[in-house]
Design goal:
- The complex is a heterodimer of chains A (144) and B (398).
- Chain A has helices spanning 5-12, 64-77, 82-86, 90-97, 104-137; strands at 27-34, 39-47, 53-61.
- Chain A is an alpha+beta fold and 144 residues long.
- Chain A has a three-stranded antiparallel beta sheet.
- By secondary structure, chain B is an alpha/beta fold.
- Chain B folds into two domains: 11-254, Aspartate Aminotransferase, domain 2 (3-Layer(aba) Sandwich); 256-378, Aspartate Aminotransferase, domain 1 (Alpha-Beta Complex), CATH 3.90.1150.10.
- The longest helix of chain B has 20 residues, at 34-53.
- Chain B is 38% helix and 13% strand.
- Chain B has helices at residues 11-17, 34-53, 67-81, 97-108, 126-132, 155-165, 239-254, 256-275, 304-310, 331-335, 340-343, 357-376, 379-385; strands at residues 61-64, 88-92, 112-116, 137-141, 168-172, 191-195, 206-210, 281-283, 294-299, 317-318, 346-350.
- In chain B, the strands form two sheets. Chain B has a seven-stranded mixed beta sheet with strand order 1-7-6-5-4-2-3, sandwiched between helices. A four-stranded antiparallel beta sheet of chain B has the order 8-9-11-10, with helices on one face.
- The chains are: A alpha+beta (144), B alpha/beta (398).
Chain lengths: 144, 398
């Protein structure tokens, strides 16, 4: 398979590989794909109170273009608001990395991972606010 | 490291072939002048060499363009010739596509095909084979050795069973020829497909052995015109190819035992270097009954194509879906019952005549490096190391 230089670069020198420490707050995690399909992406976004993505990390099990797509996705979302990140389309990854048609799937997975991470963050945030609100009602301090 | 796909030509083979492109360019079918006679004599000699290598008679060797054509000629040829006798063919799940796709085509033409399963090592079960034979069975086609995992089938037993039940037995020996001793009489083989380029010969030439007696086996020709090869395969003979094929066979047979021992030692060295430096690496195929040059392994948590990409300076092959256009992982590994997730993580190493110890050590070192690098990047490895059973995770299929 002939890959673009950009794919090869991201595969060889992936950006932002890793995971945030479990105790870190304000992190949303997206885990998409399945091992038996040959692709699993884990994308994590660290989002501040203003809803801006301050940092991103990924781990991917998949082919070279799956690794490149997720690595590139972490670069794309950094500094963006959650809404901007949520609106990102896989076609942009396809275009920027010049993915061949059989590898479009990888970009779809990356888009899904971003959306899943944002949703996870929103869910956590909502749960946290609910806990705080309930704590305020009961006038009890709450550990967050 | 991809000797199962093809092999470089042995310089001795090329040397033997060269005159037949230039001064000895005759058509072996030109019986009335010296150019034709020279070509015909070369073909006769080649036919004799190849026949001897498998314990056959020269006149029962039919030259073809390669093993794929031989498989087609054998399977379709028997099916057509013996159609009145029956319409049932038996094969097995890990055959090469040249056999499987030919059988599928025959199903479209109204034949019935049984695809026998294999055990976890890739071996067919003799009892199941016995049960599958009916009054309508006209052909059993089972490969000598597998091209992905190297598993060697119990050919002698299959041949004996086929003979006992009066069924024609074909075997695709593309991977086994020149590497395993073959004797068509002792092994009860009626039809045998061969290929030159897997044994350091040229591409585009192969042969089919067709049993001439005890009993005589007939095939309907798939290529008409001119009646070459006793009517079984028309077309002007590829004289340089045939000469090269015979030279390749001659060298392979002459040095078979020492060459196979050397290749096996290298293969074992590679396997040992990999398994002693990595955990969760699994062998695919048979631990002992496999080709000396074959090593097929799954590297858990690392997808095969990405591993190939990291090892791009080494010629390797993967059973991963991502290397093929079909997005399905290897059907061979699937037939062995290898988990799909592990099938995606497989690599095939093929060692051969020109593989060196340095190459083996380099390959082992690089494989270990890349697997470690990719595992650090793998969410599955992270989950597994955290003690999470990957089978218990609710994956989001898309």
């Amino acid at each position: 398979m002939a890959y673009s230089e950009k794919v090869i670069d991201h595969y060889k020198n992936p950006r932002n590989v890793g995971s945030f420490a479990p105790e870190e707050e304000n992190v949303g995690t997206g885990l998409v794909g399945a091992p038996e399909c040959g692709d699993v992406m884990k994308l994590q976004l660290k989002i501040n109170d203003q809803g801006v993505i301050e940092d991103a990390k990924f781990k991917t099990f998949g082919c070279g273009s799956a690794i490149a797509s997720s690595s590139y996705a972490t670069e794309l979302v950094k500094g963006k608001t959650v809404d901007e990140a949520f609106a990102l389309k896989n076609t942009q990854i396809v275009k920027d990395l010049a993915l061949p048609p059989v590898k479009i799937h990888c970009s779809v997975l990356a888009e899904g991972a971003i959306k899943a991470a944002v949703e996870d963050w929103k869910k956590r945030k909502a749960a946290k606010m609910k806990a705080q609100a309930e704590a305020a009602k009961e006038k009890k301090p709450v550990a967050v | 490291m991809d000797y199962h796909a093809t092999t470089p030509m042995d310089p001795r083979v090329l040397e033997a072939m060269l005159p037949y492109f230039t001064e000895k360019f005759g058509n072996a079918a030109s019986r009335n002048h010296v150019f034709g006679h020279v070509a015909e004599a070369a073909v006769d000699e080649a036919r004799e060499t190849i026949a001897q290598a498998i314990g056959a008679e020269a006149k029962n060797i039919v030259f073809t363009s390669g093993a794929t054509e031989s498989d087609n000629a054998a399977i379709k040829g028997v099916a057509e010739f013996y159609r009145e006798r029956g319409n049932h063919i038996i094969t097995q799940a890990t055959e090469h596509k040249a056999v499987l796709d030919t059988c599928k085509e025959l199903e479209r033409r109204g034949f019935e095909v049984t695809y026998l399963p294999v055990d976890r090592y890739g071996v067919v079960n003799m009892e199941e084979l016995q049960k599958a034979i009916t009054e309508k069975t006209i052909l059993i086609t089972i490969m000598t050795a597998n091209n992905e995992v190297g598993t060697i089938q119990p050919i002698t037993q299959i041949g004996a069973l086929a003979k006992e039940r009066g069924v024609v037995f074909h075997t695709d020996a593309a991977q086994a020829m020149g590497k395993l001793p073959i004797n068509v009489d002792e092994m009860g083989i009626d039809l045998l497909s061969m290929s030159a380029h897997k044994i350091y010969g040229p591409k585009g030439i192969g042969a089919l052995y067709v049993r001439g007696r005890n009993p005589r086996v007939r095939i309907s020709p798939q290529m008409h015109g001119g009646g070459h090869e006793r009517g079984m395969r028309s077309g002007t003979l590829n004289v340089p190819g045939i000469v090269g094929f015979a030279k390749a066979v001659e060298i392979a047979v002459e040095h078979m035992s020492e060459e196979q021992a050397r290749v096996k030692a290298l293969r074992d060295r590679l396997q040992e270097a990999i398994t002693s430096n990595l955990d969760e690496v699994y062998l695919n195929g048979h631990p002992s009954e496999r080709l000396a040059g074959n090593l097929n392994m799954s590297f858990a948590y690392v997808e095969g194509e990405s591993l190939l990409m990291g090892l791009s300076e080494i010629a390797l092959s993967s059973g991963s879906a991502c290397t093929s256009a079909t997005l399905e992982p290897s059907y061979v590994l699937k037939a062995l019952g290898v988990d799909e997730e592990l099938a995606h993580t497989s690599l095939r190493f093929g060692l051969g005549r020109f593989t060196t110890e340095e190459e083996v050590d380099y390959t082992a070192r690089r494989v270990v490096e890349e697997v470690n690098r990719l595992r650090e990047m793998s969410p599955l490895y992270e989950l597994a190391k955290a003690g999470i059973d990957l089978k218990s995770v609710q994956w989001k299929h898309d």
